[in-house]
From TrEMBL:
Residues 200-412 form the Peptidase M24 domain. SUPFAM superfamilies: Creatinase/aminopeptidase. It holds the Pfam family Peptidase_M24. This is M24 family metallopeptidase. It comes from Sediminibacterium sp. KACHI17.
Amino acid sequence: MKKLLLFFAIAVFGALVARAQYILPLKEQSRVIDELLAERLNHLLPGLMKEEGIDMWIVISREYNEDPVIKTMLPSTWISARRRTILAFYNHPNGTIEKYAIARYNVGNEIKAAWDMNQFPDQWDALVDLIKQKNPNKIGLNYSTHYAHADGLTFTEQKELMAKLSAATASKIVSAEKLAVRWLETRTEREMQLYPQLIQITHDIIREGFSEKVIMPGVTTTDDLVWWFRQKIRDLGLDTWFHPSVAVQRNDPQNFDHLRSFSNRPKDEVIRTGDLLHVDIGITYLRLNTDIQQHAYVLQPGEKSAPDYLVKAFEKGNRLQDILTSQFKTGKTGNQILADALAQAKSENIQAVIYTHPIGFHGHAAGPTIGLWDQQGGVPGSGDFPLHKNTAYSIELNAASEIPQWKKSIRIMLEQDGFWDGNQFRYISGRQIKLITIPSHASHIGD
């Protein structure tokens, strides 16, 4: 008996250790982040600069007011920029990238300091001298009408820089909007080796939260569950980029409303048997983000599966996902994809709302916006951006179904992260294809 207990203890410990290995220690995370950054700077950036026709890209930030782009270029041990940090990337005609920091320090191992303070006491003069040396035809700065991600150049920094430039040099300035978006949206091969782990971790967190381990019908509230998710993420050594949400649809007079669902939901609703639960959750790990929505059904006494009417409603949500992703094609804009998907959904009698967005360095990331919940006719600006290969998306949408048993319509709200490789779309680590049930009945227990 003692040997059996020892074996069991070892097995449990081994399982816990294996699970812990999902998430790297901070030192290892730092190493991986810096390796990913080096690969992006040296192998991804030159091609993007060439495609967008920008010879020199200048990214400027002051400490604690960081440009969204520069935050993706800092080494893992830098929590913020230092004083004023100026990065200048010159795409040499031979195809190599030259990386300069007009700053007091090297910016990690990849970007070396290039400010001789004895020769140029003024930091701007050092930058102007570098520009003269390289004589680029086009100089990209981060200002943008449609993307906050690409609009990181502040008024003060822009004013001080332009005051130092000659008229001839100033005439070379262009918006780096497209380059910034391409840098942020493009995923490398190694990043896509890691992304499935992030999503699997997120799935595991949802599965644990949507279980009898966490939920006691009649006692547990939606707010309890929200904070359980938040605490679980923190306990695993992870961060989240938004506060999780949990919502309930049930057999009551309350109708679905987007504003109520997204911002005005009751904060402390007691979870009951017969409830259709919804969670919206995302984690941040290795500078990448997830954004996932799933549903669970709380079984009523005597039930061992969700009612058929909810199963069919859920299947309609999966079908809408298929309709949307079948419209992906490199070069199509977000607005074109949205219009074509909505037209096909209508032809199949699916009442659809689509609000899909890119994901990566940010949760709501740069790239083509494919609808907003309150803009189903298209999104000016970001919706006009084309689909590029090697980009990731949160397939976020909802499909309505009339439920006669509840005397109202419900919405199946799904969100799952996927990847477009230029030829086909795939879910990075699968998607929810059936309702989670609470409790999960053990198959070996009979009536």
